[in-house]
Amino acid sequence: MKKIRNYLFFPFFFIILNFNGNVLCQDTLQTIEITLTGLTGTYLPAFTRGFLKEYNDVLGGQKKDLTHNFSFAAMLGCQWQKEFRITLKSCYIEAHLYDDFIKETFDGTNQWRTFVENIRIVSVPIIANYDWYYFFDKYKSYLSGGIGLVYSGIQWNELVQSPLQHDLRVGGDIFNEYTFYPAISIVSGVQLDFDEYSVSKFFRGITISTEFLYIFRQTDIFANLRQQIVPLPEELNGTKSVLPILVGINFGLVLNLENKKLNRIFGNK
C-alpha cells in the first residue's frame, strides 16, 4: 500500500514539469463550452496517519493504513476564456479497516482479550474549482485550486471477547457520525481532445489528474472508548484528525454539453 501511495506522486510532478513556458493568450472562445466529466481512480492517505497512531500505539491495533476502494466522480465545467475554467466536482471516496488482534488485559496477568475492529469512512467532497490553463491546444495542461465541503460518514464497530466477568471493555458501536467538514483541493491535470473533436460532438476527450485533498476533519473519535478503559491513557483524550490528507489519481472521459440558449444570451455563435 505504501508503494502504491508513493507512485501517485509521479503524475503530479510529471504534469508540473511539463510546463514549458507557453502562456495562453487572453482569447475568448467562440462559444461558452459546458462539459461533463466522468472520473474514476483512487485516493490514499498521505503525510499523516491521524487517529491510526493512537489506534495502534494505545489500543493495540495492527493496521497501519486503511483499505481504499476505487472512487467515482463527476465534474461539471464551464469555460468561456481559453486561460481559465470554472468547475464543480463531487466524488465518492470510501475506506475500510478490518482488524483482529489480542491484547493482554493487564500487564503480567496472562489473560487476553480478543478484538475485532470494523471501521468504515466515507468522504463525499463537493468542491468548486478555478482551473488555470497554461497550455491550450488539443493537449491541455492545467492547475486548479478549489474550496468546498465534504460530507463525512464514520462508522466504527468493535467486538470484544474477554476472560473477565463484568469487564468494562465491552466494545460495541464505538463511533457513528455523519456531518460536513470544510475542505480545500489542489489539482494538476492534462486533457487530451480526440482528433475529430468539435464542440458539436458529444465525446470530447480524455483526462488524467492528480489531486491533493485536505479535509479539516477533527472529531472526538475515541469519546465512547474513554468510559471503557481504566486507567485512561492521555493519548485518547481530545479530538483527532481522521484521514485529513488524501492524494488521488483520476482518469476520466470528457463530454460536451451544448447550451445554445446560454450562448445566445452572451452573444456567442
Task: Give the topology.
Layout: H1 2-7, H2 9-17, E1 28-45, H3 52-57, E2 67-68, E3 71-81, E4 84-104, E5 112-135, E6 139-161, E7 171-193, E8 203-215, E9 218-219, E10 240-241, E11 245-256, H4 260-265
Antiparallel strand pairs: 1-3, 1-11, 2-4, 3-4, 4-5, 5-6, 6-7, 7-8, 8-11, 9-10
Which tags fit this structure?
two-stranded antiparallel ribbon; 269 residues; Porin; eight-stranded antiparallel β-barrel; mainly beta
CATH architecture: Beta Barrel
Question: Outline, from the CA principal axes?
Answer: elongated
Mean pLDDT: 85
Q: State the separation between the terminal residues, measured CA to CA.
A: 50 Å
Task: Quickly count the domains.
Answer: 1
Poorly predicted regions? 20-25
Q: What share of the residues lie within helices?
A: 10-25%
Largest sheet: 8 strands, antiparallel, barrel
Instruction: Give the CATH level 1 class.
Output: Mainly Beta
Main sheet: strand order? 1-3-4-5-6-7-8-11
Question: What integer value in Å does the Rg equal?
Answer: 24 Å
Number of E strands: 11
Oligomer: single chain
The assigned structural class equals mainly beta
Run of helices and strands: HHEHEEEEEEEEEEH
Tally the helices: what do you get? Answer: 4
Percent strand:
over 45%
As for the CATH topology, it is: Porin
